[in-house]
Design brief:
By secondary structure, the protein is α+β, with helices and mostly antiparallel strands. The protein has helices spanning 46-49, 87-103, 111-126, 131-145, 171-179, 193-210, 218-227, and strands at 2-15, 19-26, 30-36, 55-61, 69-78, 156-157, 160-161.
């Protein structure tokens, strides 16, 4: 069966001398793996398409019981101009991509989460400030859309103590914006270092309870090194 869908590239692996395997978040199918024949050939554009964070339109052959689907055609759904030029932007974008890859199961469609990831990447592309807010908002949305919406009044979850999400001077207001699905926070709201620790610690704790392997995202380690410079 031939299918056509938009997709966001999550990861790629070499496969033979001329091909690669690409893992993508496909809007209509969820996380799906593809074999991309000839991607490493010099005259093939396929290698450039299948880079993590790229947003594509795909035409592919789909068989339900096959682990690797076969790409027929690929083109850019949109292109990022600013993200590849800014190490901070690409680190936040890759953190969202890596988090999504670790939290999704194969072939489980989540249209709302796909739309939220695409919107968040566009925000990273177009924003110069408060990139951490965009990332936190995406973390909160991912938990919500995958069925684990945070209950900010709970003190523990699955017998694991939860940090107080309201401990920061402005953290309660930040979470109120997330509850309303708003990305833009009032310019006069000062986000303190304590707010950053509280919001980040709370969201990462919730994610760590529900999903394995999200505590050590490589992209976040790189981002912490950048911010400490």
């Amino acid at each position: 069966m031939i299918k056509n869908s938009s997709a966001i590239v999550l990861k790629r692996f070499p496969y033979s001398e001329t091909s690669l395997i690409a893992r993508c978040f496909v809007k209509d199918l969820g996380k799906t793996s593809f074999i991309v024949h000839g991607a490493h050939r010099k005259k093939s554009p396929m290698g450039a398409y299948f880079q993590p964070v790229n947003c594509l339109n795909l035409v592919f052959y789909f068989k339900e019981n096959r682990e690797l689907q076969t790409i027929s055609k690929a083109s850019f759904d949109c292109s990022w101009r600013n993200i590849p030029k800014d190490l901070k932007k690409i680190s936040y974008a890759m953190a969202m991509i890596e988090l999504t890859d670790k939290c999704l199961t194969d072939n489980d469609s989540h249209n709302n989460l796909y739309n939220e990831l695409f919107r968040s990447l566009k925000e990273v592309e177009n924003s110069n400030n408060q990139l951490n807010l965009i990332y936190w908002h995406y973390q909160y949305s991912l938990l919500t859309f995958l069925g684990f919406k945070p209950d900010l009044n709970q003190s523990e979850l699955d017998f694991v103590p939860l940090p107080n999400p309201y401990e920061g001077p402005n953290s309660k207001e930040i979470f109120n914006y997330f509850e309303k699905a708003e990305l833009e926070i009032k310019e006069n709201l000062k986000i303190t270092a304590k707010d950053r620790r509280v919001v980040s610690n709370y969201l990462n704790t919730c994610l760590g309870i529900h999903f394995e392997g999200v505590k050590n995202l490589k992209s976040l380690k790189i981002l912490r090194e950048i911010l400490s410079i």
